[in-house]
Design a protein that fits this description.
With 246 residues, the protein is α/β, with parallel strands linked by helices. It is 34% helix and 24% strand. The protein has one domain: 3-Layer(aba) Sandwich (Rossmann fold). A nine-stranded mixed beta sheet has the order 1-9-8-7-6-4-5-3-2, sandwiched between helices. Strand 2 and strand 3 form a beta hairpin. Helix 1 packs across helix 7 and helix 2 crosses helix 3. The longest helix is centred in the last third of the chain and has 19 residues. InterPro entries: KANL3/Tex30_Abhydrolase (IPR046879), NSL3/Tex30 (IPR026555). This is KANL3/Tex30 alpha/beta hydrolase-like domain-containing protein. Pfam families: Abhydrolase_11.
Amino acid sequence: MSLTSSHVMFDVSEEMENFEEDAVKVPFGTKHVAAALCVPASSQSLETDVDTAVILTHGAGGDMNFKHLLSLAHALASSGFICLRFTCKSLNLGYRVKVYRAVWEYLKSLQKFTIKHIFIGGRSMGSRASVALARQLSDATEDAVQGVICLSFPLHPPGQTHSHRQRSEDLRALPEHMPVLFVSGTEDNMCDRVLFDKTVTEMKAQTEVFWLEGGSHGLTVKGQSEESVMDQVNLQVITWINKSRA
């Protein structure tokens, strides 16, 4: 299923204060991974009501406080979800996946919440890592991950469309039961739309694609404020999660 954005303004700012956030350190071998746990404000008194969590990570540049991830994390928590985002600056995809798995295990170990559904995702390279982890986890158990969120999936480096088959290998290997949401800009120079559409048709997983009209790889749109674009993206993600966990 493919959707395209319009220039409608989605104002979710009124909900953006209903969360609490704490810095956490996730064990990873002899090291620790910097992370932030964002939860609904009501979860302090209604802990058992929060049963869905989302893990997010950033792309090849920046960190977990990249503005789009921060906005999405706060919107998720304000909508009743737990959101754990983390920083991993390594450009080695295999290493990133190992770190991501450690974060997933940490989330599952939290005793404070009864988590029944876990969604994983990220931006750009972070979305590649989340897809690779979802593929690994689905080989072990069908319900390890409820779905995958891919913000600006980098199908190929700029001008190097020949690499799209290698970049999409994990996507094509995801199982049929796995829901995947793609959010990509129509002007993304790392995601040729024709090649991307062909890749989606080759996937076994359940896919939904939201095309941000005029959006770049950074999900910015000329003529629109960053806040209005982020509101559109956040609304798409939250709507999809609610539908996928139903």
